[in-house]
Amino acid sequence: MQEKNHSVVVIDDEESMRDSCRMILEKDGFLTETAEDGKKGLEKVKEMNPDIALVDLKMPGIGGLDVIEKIKEISPDTVPIVITGYATVESAVEAMKKGAYDFLPKPFTPEQLRVIIKRGLEKIKLFREAESLRKEKKLIEENFITMVSHQLRSPLVAIAQYFEVMLSGYVGEMSKEHKDMLSKARNRVESLLELINDWLDAARIDKGQLVEKFKPVSLHNILKKQIEFLQPIAEKNKINLEIEPPTGKSTIRGDKETLEQAFANLLNNAVKYNKPNGSVTISFREKDDCIITDIKDTGVGIDKKHIPQLFNQFFRVNRSEGKQGKGSGLGLSISKKIIDAHSGRIDVSSTLGKGSTFSVTLPKHKKATD
Fold first, then answer.
1. What is the DSSP string of 295-352?
2. Average per-residue pLDDT in the chain?
């Protein structure tokens, strides 16, 4: 019926049930162990890490529902199947909530047992195949990131440097026509490098790895730093940057580097798509156990129909007033991915011709001091 390496633990206080299940399963080639109560059954599970555990609901000591729950803690890959003479819809639902895969009411025939065991093995097979595909996908992504970093990005950086040398006049004088052509080529290479860098950033953001680096960080300090970086560009475009001091603490638990990147993308857009003599105002407010950072601009605004797509990768709004973006279309997607990894969210409200407000909600760090 199946490969010899499959194993089953039968946990039941009825000796006749344990013995009959063992005889049927061993005849079909399963490695089978039995236990007369929940405590001994859990010891067997810990020792064997079986493929399947047949668990009776009504047992002395630890009840079947608790046994199922503990099996998922001890051996997450084990498939628990309930066998019981007290089968009801309510008990079946409760068992499924605890982690049981299937339900077999007593008394049952050898063929019924074989059918339900077969279902459990199919689940294991599908799970292992899915896990194998997940690992393969991750390996492909990692190899692709490496390929993009070294085989695409590095040559483009070298090309950009050669263009700079040529445009600086180190290889001799060039006509204006030649300079214009090289400048356009350099700009295209720089745009491609920006796209590659943004894509690499998006591909490398891993929630699990970020959480490991979480520390108390001040949102106020992060935003102040980004304003200092943007100040020269804002002044050139006659845009006023202003940050209002928080009324309370603005500290959360997070990864400082990626949060700086997320807010830098939002602020860059607020300046880039603003109007001459416009403004960008940053303010903080508290709601429940969260801190909300509002980034309000007086720019060209966004049509409401575009807002649901705003954070999709490579999506760019066809802006009015000649403000069509030339970026990679990944900035907002990266920001959302970072904020999502911090268990937060970004909300947008906008009016065409009047400006937009991006509101970033992040959980407070309760014990932190600003």
1. EEE-SS---GGGGGGTTSTT-----STT----S-S-HHHHHHHHHHHTT-EEEEEEET
2. 86
